[in-house]
Amino acid sequence: TKITIERWDKKLRLVAELLPRGNIVIIDENEKITLPLRRRSFSSRKIKVGETYERPPSRVNPLEMGGHDLTNLCKQEDKDVVRVLASELSLGGLYAEEVCEKAGVAKNKKADELAASEIKAIRAAILAIFEPIITNDKSRLRAHIVTEGKEKVDVLPFELSVYEKKEKVLFASFNDAADDFFTTQIAEGVEEKAKSEHEKEVGKYERILKEQLDALRRFQLKEVECIKKGELIYARYTAIEEILREMDEKRKVVSLTLPDTDVQLEIDTSVSLHKNAGAYYEKAKVFRKKREGVERAIDTTKEKIRTEKAREVRVEDALMPKRKEVRREKEEWYERFRWFETSDGFLVIGGKDATTNEILVKKYMDVNDLFFHTQAEGAPAVIAKTAGKDVSADCLREIAQFAASYSNLWKYGFYEGECYCVTGEQVSKTPPSGEYIKKGSFMVRGKRKYFKAALGLCIGIEKNRLVACPSSESQKGRLNIFVELEPGGDLEKNELSKEIVKIFVDSAKEEKKEEIKQIATQEKVMSFLPSGKSRIKRGYPLRK
Q1: Neighbours of 522 (CB within 10 A)
Q2: Residues 169-225: pLDDT tens digits?
Q3: Is the same domain home to 41 and 75?
Q4: What is the pTM of this model?
Q5: Residues 266 and 226 sit within 8 Å (Cβ to Cβ)
Q6: Same domain as 67, residue 38
Q7: Is residue 471 part of a domain?
Q8: Of 161, 160, 165, which is closest to residue 148 (Cα–Cα)?
Q9: Are 214 and 263 part of one and the same domain?
């Protein structure tokens, strides 16, 4: 395929070579190559800047091959007929098998053993299969993607008998079918690579953890060993003194093993046994500090592994094939967290894990904001950006429900929980003297206001954004489409996210389905779901 390009006083041509791996070459009026996509060297030609462009050598066109030529070709080949058709006639494996099937010829039969009638049937089958393309008879074209379960197997302009029993998805044109098929293939390849990199990152931390656990065991053993030696010196003080008197006093440090023990002691004869015991206790302290340091490092590494495993695998947009663009507002900073707007218009943001809890409180909470939390383990830090303004009782209940629903109360199947509220200035990361606050936790000082909150959430779409919000009637009224959830049931997060996406897509108009698929991907929906099992209370269709 050639496309002529005019640029000022020059005429250039863009040549697309539709060969295996393919190539694109720009040539000038003198057929000289000015820019190739890929530099290649073949026995008959070179694709390099400055070289004269030579077309690829012509191959046999099976649609133009007469019966006599086909007979001569077959008589010269002792390979299976399907291989001869695939390679010598450039049909490829799929269409070679289709020709054999349609001609009624065993594909494993040797080409040079074919009868004249079989060769004639093969030629007729080739012409019949490709006739819709030869005649440009669009009524006989049936562009489709062959599927097997959720896997897209192949894309074809017309049906083939080899896929007769497979499921098919029809398209208006072959271009549409090919675009869908290859976009998916490229996207899956890019995502697979991203997942592989993600798994490597997890593997790196797991290797570090193994080394840290090995070090921990060594330090624990050394600490116990030193304490044991110090205690042994005091327990056998007299016996050790007696042994030392009988030994060569010229040596400063002596090694000895007491009868009935397997412990070897290193004794410094220049100091008292009391100081020798003290030295072992000091060594034990050193190993204890090392052990404690490794234990803290292990906690950090475990947290990194948990965070990395829970992290959504993201792929740079530039690496992904372009899909139909979805019109939506610019992404805001709070969309990396769980969030919603109260009925009064206050922004409420909740953490997803210890790391995001820490970021939320340290970076985004002001002293006049409200901080909501439950006593249940694994509860998110939830802040309401009120700037000190009054908040209605209804909105306070909404925020309390949001905070309680994302705690482990949901996981344990509770339908109601207790939540407290304080101002931002009451929350601190500074612990009392001698105490330690783990990552994602905080100190709360002063009076707290408590709420009884029913657990319930809505996952929905508002202004082309996926949101999670409390299940109050005022919140439901803001959403274009949503699913209301309650604790319990038997749906795990993976199954539930698939079901929610299906409800959203099925309820959308045909022209909106692709847009909904991009806004509410399974991964995004899953990131908004609370921990544990849930049931769908009700699903609501699109209102607009």
Answers
A1: 17
A2: 877 678 888 888 888 777 777 777 777 777 888 889 999 999 999 999 999 999 999
A3: no
A4: 0.43
A5: no
A6: no
A7: yes
A8: 165
A9: yes
